[in-house]
């Protein structure tokens, strides 16, 4: 495994660890707490970061999403289209997405981080940039979730 893939795998592992730390011991009330009527709950933030990781990483590797491929959409039974990325929570789903992400990373060949995965941006987005973007987004959302859980615990 190249050094870059080792670093990316470590970063995604840190996301997983932060999600686990954030959710550990939290009650249902704390997970669904919203400091204002329009604010996101910790549960929503964790689910959302996982959906975005699942969506973006699966697309970058031309794979099906864990959400639809492994029955998570049916298990959650949310009143949204299966392609939605915005409501709910489960650490089990996050674990499955994390495992798939790490599995995809083990298939990255030398130089593949420069492969274009999204031409909808200028400049086009490479695999490396997409993965770093997902890590950044995930860590911001897990930080938000931890903050709101702190408010709920008061």
Explained architecture:
The chain has helices spanning 3-23, 28-31, 42-60, 66-69, 72-76, 91-105, 127-152, and strands at 116-118, 125-126. With 154 residues, it is mostly helical. It has one domain: Four Helix Bundle (Hemerythrin (Met), subunit A) (Up-down Bundle), CATH 1.20.120. The chain has a two-stranded antiparallel sheet. The longest helix is centred in the C-terminal third of the chain and has 26 residues, at 127-152. The radius of gyration is 16 Å and the shape is globular. 33% of the residues are buried. The mean pLDDT is 92.
Sequence of secondary-structure elements: HHHHHHEEH
Number of domains: 1
- Beta percentage is under 5%
Describe the sheet with the most strands. 2 strands, antiparallel
Helix content: 55-70%
Distance between the termini: 45 Å
C-alpha geometry? globular
Supply the CATH superfamily name: dinb family like domain
The number of strands is 2
User: What would you call the structural class?
Assistant: mainly alpha
Q: In CATH, what is the class?
A: Mainly Alpha
- Provide the low-confidence segments as ranges: none
Helix tally equals 7
Radius of gyration from the CA trace?
16 Å
Adjacency order of strands in the biggest sheet:
1-2
What is the CATH-assigned architecture? Up-down Bundle
Mean pLDDT across every amino acid position:
92
Stated plainly, the CATH topology is called Four Helix Bundle (Hemerythrin (Met), subunit A)
